[in-house]
Amino acid sequence: MSTHDGIPVIAIDGPTASGKGTIAQRVAQMLGWGYLDSGALYRLSALAALRDGVSLDDEAALAGLAARLPVAFRGATIELAGQDVTDTIRDEAIGNAASRIAALPALRAALLDLQRGFRRAPGLVADGRDMGTVVFPEARLKVFLTASAESRAERRYKQLIEKGFSANLDALLADLRQRDARDANRAVAPLKPAEGAVVIDSTHLGIDQTVAQVLKAYRDLARRAGA
Ligand code: CDP
């Protein structure tokens, strides 16, 4: 038996800019649970590689770097080697580099323990691409959150502009389609709904409505388990 037995996990997976982060954070807040932004770990690995001059093709070096990632999550702030990189890792260039190195099996394996370490009582909401399929296959609820490519590009555009980055909607849409294809077609942990996942299409849903659907799915499950 592992020490994690019984600590519930809600896994929220889905394509880029589907709103997973916002939804997962809100759900965690509502339940009083912890939150894991697994994409941040891929972004941090990419940033660390670029800073250390490690090639994005050097799988062994990248895995070594990811296994010793000097990362600290302090509330909403993310630090790498003691430096606040919360906004830096949201840069599209870092996102694209993260998506490239995320295809490397050794790097993914190196991040597994770090991710599973986030599972603490009373529960964890984890968002990413493979939370329900690989990292927490025993998650109590698995959600696959999606939305049309156009609406995701618009959301990402707004998010970047709000953070003070410059952005171009057409370029974002093209990038997003490329990243979708890369995430879905890679050999290891490809993006796909986990077995038994509740699929939520948020193209026409607001944040509150989407959060409500996730919480309802969780309550329905709990009720059925208790019945
Ligand atoms: O914001 P966006 O959804 O584009 O990205 P993210 O969730 O911050 O993740 C950055 C990149 O890491 C993604 O493009 C994925 O390729 C990769 N990733 C992954 O492979 N597995 C995860 N569990 C999370 C992210």
Task: Please render the helix and strand layout as text.
Layout: E1 9-13, H1 20-31, E2 34-37, H2 38-52, H3 59-67, E3 71-74, E4 77-80, E5 83-84, H4 92-101, H5 105-110, H6 112-116, E6 124-128, H7 131-135, E7 141-146, H8 149-162, H9 169-185, E8 198-201, H10 207-226
Parallel strand pairs: 1-6, 1-7, 2-6, 7-8
Antiparallel strand pairs: 3-4, 4-5
Cytidine-5'-diphosphate binds at residues 16-17, 38-39, 42-43, 95, 98-99, 102, 128-130, 179, 183.
Approximate helicity band? 40-55%
Rg for CA atoms: 17 Å
The named CATH superfamily: P-loop containing nucleotide triphosphate hydrolases
Total strands: the figure is: 8
Fill in the CATH topology.
Answer: Rossmann fold
- Which residues sit in consecutive blocks of at least 5 with pLDDT less than 50? none
Strand proportion, as a percent range, falls in 5-15%
By CATH reckoning, the class would read Alpha Beta
Average pLDDT, rounded to a whole number, is 93
Basic shape: globular
Task: Summarize the main sheet.
Answer: 5 strands, parallel
How far the N terminus sits from the C terminus, by CA atoms, comes to 26 Å
Bound molecules: cytidine-5'-diphosphate
| CATH architect. name | 3-Layer(aba) Sandwich
Walk me through what this model shows.
- The chain has ten helices and eight strands.
- It is α/β, with parallel strands linked by helices and 227 residues long.
- Helix 1 (20-31) crosses helix 10 (207-226).
- The longest helix has 20 residues, at 207-226.
- It has a single domain (9-226), classed as 3-Layer(aba) Sandwich (Rossmann fold).
- It has helices at 20-31, 38-52, 59-67, 92-101, 105-110, 112-116, 131-135, 149-162, 169-185, 207-226, and strands at residues 9-13, 34-37, 71-74, 77-80, 83-84, 124-128, 141-146, 198-201.
- The chain binds cytidine-5'-diphosphate.
- Cytidine-5'-diphosphate (CDP) is lined by residues 16-17, 38-39, 42-43, 95, 98-99, 102, 128-130, 179, 183.
